[in-house]
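Sequence design from tokenized structure. All designs in this work follow the same two-part layout: the structure record, then the generated sequence. An example of the structure record is given first.
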């Protein structure tokens, strides 16, 4: 259960970071690439936590994973935009 709470908090933080990354001009996309890797790790941890809890977390696990996937998409798009500049 602690992993689920940790993943949810991480998701919120990463979503915030992704928003900042998209809002400001990025000069070095390598930092975003590292952030992207961390988000992917968090998604895998969330999948493991959900499986260990038999996916029954009153819908919170599903929503946390959805937020992580949204953050992953945003950061990936930010990296592509930064590379194009």
């Amino acid at each position: 259960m602690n992993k689920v709470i940790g993943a949810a908090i991480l998701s919120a933080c990463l979503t915030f970071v992704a928003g900042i990354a998209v809002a400001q001009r990025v000069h070095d996309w390598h930092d975003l690439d590292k952030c992207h890797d961390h988000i992917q790790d968090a998604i895998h941890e969330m999948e493991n936590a959900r499986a260990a809890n038999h996916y029954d977390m009153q819908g919170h696990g599903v929503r946390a994973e959805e937020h992580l996937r949204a953050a992953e998409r945003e950061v990936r798009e930010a990296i592509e935009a930064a590379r194009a500049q």
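Helices lie at 2-23, 29-52, 60-84. We note this feature because it recurs in several other targets discussed in the main text.
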